[in-house]
Amino acid sequence: MKQKLVFFVGVAGTGKTTVARKLAKHIQAAFLDRDTVGGRFVEKMLEMNGLDVNDRDSEFYKKHLRDLEYDTTKDICIENLAAGQNVFMISPFTAELKNKAWIEEVLAAAGLNKQEVDVKVIAVTLGDMETQRKRIEQRQTERDNWKLEHWDDFKQRVQFVPEVNWDIPASSVLVFDNSGDLTNEKVESVYQFVMNES
């Protein structure tokens, strides 16, 4: 069976991490949430520059820190793939999904190719923004305070499905509506999607 490289993407509050955690109970994988990988370092650098440690929207963050977080997560992914591990990647990955060469570079850096690694993208969506707001409130992280205080500016289209320009089959992309309870049946459907090799 091929190694699995699974991307859980979507806007904040859709439940990317929750879906990935549920699936991780059924598939052993390195679990790489970009917020966890880079969070402490980004917060320290923002603080050192007199900026809000919860900021992920300013030009300073986008210019100096965004790629640092994503590239570090990518490097850890490459190391785990090279070591023979399945990998779950959790973050929006909007720019990376548009870059056709990005996934090829990841696999090549791990000394692998698409015949050896089954790449899947799970775009996690919600039916409405009220559910998004409730989920952001429930996770109670300081980083979300700005989002909640500036909700009209922040709220993002929760049905948004990122553009996937990678050279993978259409059957390797799943749009998963995470509205309502995340039942065992829903988790099983995601599991089957991941386990079926494209």
TrEMBL record:
SUPFAM superfamilies xrefs: P-loop containing nucleoside triphosphate hydrolases
Pfam families: AAA_33
One MF term in the entry's GO annotations: ATP binding
InterPro entries: P-loop_NTPase
Record-linked Gene3D superfamilies: P-loop containing nucleotide triphosphate hydrolases (3.40.50.300)
The keyword ATP-binding is assigned to this record: yes
Entry keywords, A to Z: ATP-binding, Nucleotide-binding
PANTHER family assigned: OS07G0160300 PROTEIN
Protein name, as recorded: ATP-binding protein
Species in which this protein is naturally found: Paenibacillus motobuensis
